[in-house]
Amino acid sequence: MRMRWLIKGSARVRRILAFIWRSIYKLISANRASASRSVAAGLAQHIGEREEQQDAYRLFPLEETGKKEKQDFFAVLADGMGGYAMGKEAGILAVETMVSAYAIHSPLTSVPKALGRSLQLANKAVYELALKNDLEWNVGSTLIAAVIASGKLNWISAGDSRVYLYRSGVLVSLTRDHVYANRLYEQVLAGTLSIEEAESHPERHLLTSYLGIPSMTEIDANQTPLALLAGDYVLLCSDGIHDDLSEELLEVAFKFSPQAAADYILQYVLAQQRPYQDNATIILLAYR
To answer: Which candidate, 221, 238, 222, places its Cα nearest to that of 91?
Structure first.
């Protein structure tokens, strides 16, 4: 009996050790593969039916900000708030401040912390722009940013611009819109408001977080980097784009190069011929 137990036990140990070795081998292989991966980008933008372009963006490999890894990418997109004053100026200032702040962060600072600090500095810059022009609470911008470094993705968001991940035919929003509708649905769950009242509320689309306010606490960001797989796409877009995104549309678009895909998506949006089409901007990052 004891001998049979020892034999069975040793066989089980061998299976466990074999499993551990296979896992380690896969991890090493994945790390080697990620080191050889690259990021290809595409970008498309249109003014829509608005008087001026209030979307702003920056997109480049991270070595242009002084970082060293060639396959790394940094993308920032801001949507100046059209219903407020100085929307164009706010969007541009938000992006430029975000980029310059991130570019000088210490190598000892983690990506999530660097993004968070950079976002707060961008918020401060837009808020000071409002104060300088006696427009407190009347100047604002959304902002999203994504960093791909060593095969891993970090993002941050304030407002209702969105960061998406498209993987194996499935489109997932990585960010949450910071809009009043969220609070309305909390009331629905609490039983103090009906779903019909929430969905018809005239202020459901109002932003509850954006750049240009004294203290910004409602922020979306991941603290644990998301490991990317070959074939993944990361999308950043303003609200002039995201209502038209679908898995069916992207399945067709991603048969083309990233730039051609971005152009295809934008043309699809414009083909809807909405009379009040907002500024539309989309950034695609294809992980290969």
So the answer is: 238
